[in-house]
Amino acid sequence: MTTPTVTATATIASNGTVRITDGDGEHELKGKGLEQARQLLIQHFADQANLNGNTGITVDSTDPELGKSRLFIKRDSTVELLPIENAAEPEPAAEGETKPAPGDGHSAKAAPAPAPAPESQPTTRRAARPTAADFAASRPQAAVGPAQEGWQGALNALSGGSLRIAPGDKELQRRSWRASIQRGLAGHKTVVFINLKGGAGKTTKTYLFAAILGRVRGGNILAWDNNENKGTLGDRSMRSNHDHTAIDLLANIDRFATPSNAHELVNYVHAQGENKFHVLASQNTAADKEVVDGAAFTQLHGALKQFYHLMAVDTGNASTAGTWQAAVEIADEIVIVAMNKEDSVKTLASTVDTLVQMGYGDKLANGVLLITQPPVPSKNKAARVQANNERLERTKNHFAHYVRDVVVLPNDEALDDGGDIVYENLAAATQEAYLHAAAAIVEGL
């Protein structure tokens, strides 16, 4: 599509004055502030388009807040944002070739003879009729809504609805991730987070995956600490008026054989406020043996899946534990996690070898690796950054042979001390990275 020729310029001053230069010369409009000035500009050129019988008028606009923009202002006062850079000139035809005329989809060279049509198969009138599914599939794709973020969103908001500028690439990417997270799933799904090394970020990633699901997807979400001894998910989440754990729920699991007692679950799980999910804590007393074994985990899972559509399971550090083995067996998807540190990644490589040896290679192939960048100390900063980057590339290259996707998460000071996980305290880049991670995980369910 050819970009319309610019036929006017407009400069908006901070006092609300609009100076216009067009085919009629120079003239001035005066508004009370920037917002009214923008509306006057749009209305002026919409009126001109109607008066001249044009579809619209292309204007180069300069705004003290929004900078330079090229606008196509239509006769109905709607506005389309155009690229300012010039379109590339068409390449000259090579010597000996004839350049096709505009709109002509055929080259001057002779086209190859078409392949013979396949022999037609007899069909009945009934077989040729489209179905309801065909009709539904023919529905046009919904138009992309106007931008709500970035400078495009700011311009839309400041225009009072007169502008409907399309979203930029970053906003479109975030919308795509949100759509992936919100897509329909067939039945209950369980995701497990695994690395046999402690301190790899399993608990943090389990919690924030569930938080993204709760905030973006909604529904009944459970984050479950399935540590074979004492885990920390309950310690790092919002508290309730009880300190019950999976052990207490197991002791009363018969009450939840059917959904009729769903209201009593609040006595065993911990609601997470705006994150809109529940936490089931592991035992709160350290021990040298597992208290909830594999059979008990399976029993708990069978009851809980009646109440929760999606579970995120934080696992322990022993592949020999029955709870760990039961979680991996039940999982619809395995998410492997690590810090970008040599010991964490090395242990994860060993964990993956264990999963493959146990026969879970195919399940792992549908999974995701989440790797978190470490903090960079001020001393020897450049050397540490280089070492981290080199290790990250080694890690991505190694695990790309085992998993479907790799997502890198930034370091965030709000998570460094191992205290309460508060979503609102995370940096915007961290929230966006976990949105990406959640989308990558849900795409495998």
TrEMBL record:
It comes from the Bacteria. The keyword Transferase does not apply. PANTHER family: ESX-1 SECRETION-ASSOCIATED PROTEIN ESPI, SEPTUM SITE-DETERMINING PROTEIN MIND HOMOLOG, CHLOROPLASTIC-RELATED. This is Uncharacterized protein. One of its GO terms (molecular function) is ATP hydrolysis activity. GO terms for biological process: negative regulation of cell division. The lineage of its organism: Bacteria, Bacillati, Actinomycetota, Actinomycetes, Micrococcales. Keywords: Plasmid. Residues 85-112, 123-137 have a biased composition (Low complexity). It comes from Paenarthrobacter ureafaciens. Residues 85-147 are annotated as: Disordered. GO terms for cellular component: cytoplasmic side of plasma membrane; cytosol.
